[in-house]
Structures are given as structure tokens and as C-alpha cells.
Design a protein that fits this description.
By secondary structure, this protein is α+β, with helices and mostly antiparallel strands. It has a single domain, classed as Alpha-Beta Plaits (2-Layer Sandwich), CATH 3.30.70. The chain has three helices and three strands. The protein has helices spanning 3-22, 35-47, 81-93; strands at 28-31, 52-55, 72-75. The mean pLDDT is 84.
Length: 97
């Protein structure tokens, strides 16, 4: 084997290892097609003490064919993710906590 083959195997092996064993946990808790939906959920979570931030807000205005990426809501603290998901579930089913 030549050096480029070995280097390629090592490189892709390192990426595989990182993605499956060392990647940080996802902090995304909600995604929707419209900014209004994401802001509604954001306001609900923050009213319940969970700090959040939005990614990919209003991306459709940057692309002529519409949205390629929907806006998504993320928690600042990964410890809040489980509670945030429960609050979102309750919000969708009409339960007020």
C-alpha cells in the first residue's frame, strides 16, 4: 500500500470514530417550516425557565427556490433538553404546566 491509501484509511477512520463515539449530544429540541412556530415554542420554553436559541432563522429569503433549511430551536444547556421536549409535547397536546 502506498502512503495515500494509508492516510485515507486513517483519516476516514478518525472521522468515523468521532461521529459515532465522540460527537457531542444534539441540543435541538424543535424544528418547523415557519419562524412563527419556532418563536411560539421558544416563548413557551423561556416562560418556563429554559433558555434557548434559534438556528437557520429566515433562511428562505436567501435562496430563490424557498427554504433549504428550516429554522430550529436549541437549548443552551443540554441538561434542559428532556424537560424542554416534555414541555413541547404538552404544548402540542394542550396541557398547561
Amino acid at each position: 500500500m502506498d502512503i495515500w491509501t494509508i492516510a485515507s484509511i486513517v483519516f476516514f477512520g478518525a472521522i468515523f470514530y468521532f461521529l459515532f463515539f465522540k460527537a457531542p449530544p444534539s441540543d435541538r429540541v424543535f424544528t418547523a417550516e415557519s419562524d412563527a412556530e419556532v418563536f411560539h415554542v421558544k416563548n413557551h420554553l423561556e416562560a418556563n425557565g429554559i433558555k434557548t436559541y434559534i438556528k437557520s432563522r429566515s433562511m428562505r429569503r436567501y435562496h430563490p427556490y424557498g427554504a433549504l433549511v428550516n429554522p430550529s430551536l436549541h437549548v443552551l444547556r443540554i441538561e434542559d433538553k428532556k424537560r424542554a421536549l416534555q414541555l413541547i409535547k404538552d404544548l402540542r397536546t394542550g396541557i398547561d404546566r
